[in-house]
Design a protein that fits this description.
With about 475 residues, this protein is α/β, with parallel strands linked by helices. The chain folds into four domains: about 1-160 and about 215-245 and about 335-385, Rossmann fold (3-Layer(aba) Sandwich), CATH 3.40.50.300; about 160-215, Histone, subunit A (Orthogonal Bundle), CATH 1.10.20; about 245-335, Orthogonal Bundle (Helix Hairpins), CATH 1.10.287.890; about 410-470, no CATH class. The chain is about 45% helix and about 10% strand. The chain has 18 helices and nine strands. The chain has helices at about 1-10, 25-40, 65-70, 85-95, 100-105, 135-145, 165-170, 175-185, 185-190, 195-210, 215-220, 245-265, 265-285, 305-310, 315-350, 370-385, 420-430, 430-445; strands at about 15-20, 40-45, 70, 130, 240-245, 360, 410, 415-420, 470. β2, α3 and β3 form a beta-alpha-beta unit. The longest helix is centred in the last third of the chain and has 35 residues, at about 315-350. It is globular, with a radius of gyration of 24 Å. The N and C termini lie far apart (about 60 Å). It is an enzyme of class 2 (transferase). Its EC number is 2.5.1.75.
Amino acid sequence: MAAAAALCRGRAPPPLVVILGATGTGKSALALQLGLRLGGEIVSADSMQVYKGLDIITNKVSPQEQRLCRHHMISFVDPLVSNYTVVDFRDKAVPLISCHAAACLAEQEWASPLRGQRDQYIFARDKIPIVVGGTNYYIESLLWKVLINTKEKPSSAPRPGSDRKGELEQLDSAELHRRLSQVDPEMAAKLHPHDKRKVARSLQVFEETGIPHSEILHQQQEEEGGGPLGGPLKYPHSCILWLHADQAALDARLEKRVDDMVAAGLLEELRDFHRRYNQEKVAENRQDYQHGIFQSIGFKEFHEYLVSEGNCSPETSALLLEKGIQALKQVTKRYARRQNKWVRNRFLKRPGPNVPPVYGLEVSDLQRWEEDVLKPALEIVESFIQGREPPAEPLRMEHDEKENKRSPRVCELCDRLIIGDREWAAHTRSKSHLHHLKKRRKLEESGHAGGTMGDSGDTETSDEDGSLPLP
């Protein structure tokens, strides 16, 4: 560790290391190994690990591992807080990394405990910040200037209660989108009317700043080092390690991990958390699995089992338990796919030059961890520490300069609004669109091109590309 600190001393600036990858690829294990060998400190960027409780289901590192290498941003938010945001995360995490960033946030409540304590900053202690996590917008908030702080100077840490964005999300989708169209038509045109969270956020930005969200984003993009998707990098000297695996191997590993969670006491953890925080809400029919830690993958999947335990036969309880376990396995595998898709879209296909180099590490065969993962990761990070070219080549960026991720198009054939060039291409290949196209051609060939498109049996509940019907 002392040797690693010596490598950093006198070299400005030390690198910021980001470890990305789907759940189950070994991000936490690699971070711990790098931290121990290179004198690093780990910053968790997981939106569920900030909350106290559900340590098994959120896959937190153990207390023993936290004692081996210093970890930050784990288990400090009350489970009943539902309005903890990515802005809160950024305002606490950024000052931990950089004293310059802390100075920029000096008026923030989160930064106040660090004022005048330069040795609190990871960079200032000749340590390497290692950001680990799977929550995309948390990681992006540390890498780029992409967020807009609409909060007044807080008087205390986030606490239980509603916020303006949550209030807006209660409105009807069409009404919410109509309000945004009146104050920020440019942003309204880029957001799908059914995407309540993003529409509500943009409306909140205007209400609390008096400036259209689209105008603020343009200002960020036009800053030196900015790009089409956001402002400049906070830490230009940074690198990304992407752990990826063969999908079949990862699926098998995730199924085993769920079984290991059950063996490690998952059911006891769920029962205790349900009794302490959720039982009363369920009884009053006000449970909320869309905000805070209650949206954690794994908790809501066991809802039926938890609420019926003790009130049904042992056979029924066993069936509900197995149903919850299988649901957890399926949703975990789907989540892993979404995480990998995000890495490809936001880093490998991101337009603009402001993307750190991404180095791929193959983790399909855990028996080859030392050769395929740890050794090359150490070589890459040590190269950044020493200011030389890494021996490995970063993954090639595959971005299309002409691609528009926010262009709105209406498919009149399917009566759907599609946002983004890539989504439009996916929609035109979807089963639903091709079905309607085939039917229209048949009608045209038979001389009945004016026939209806909404006959019974012709509509589907969802599209493979995820597009939604117009409101």
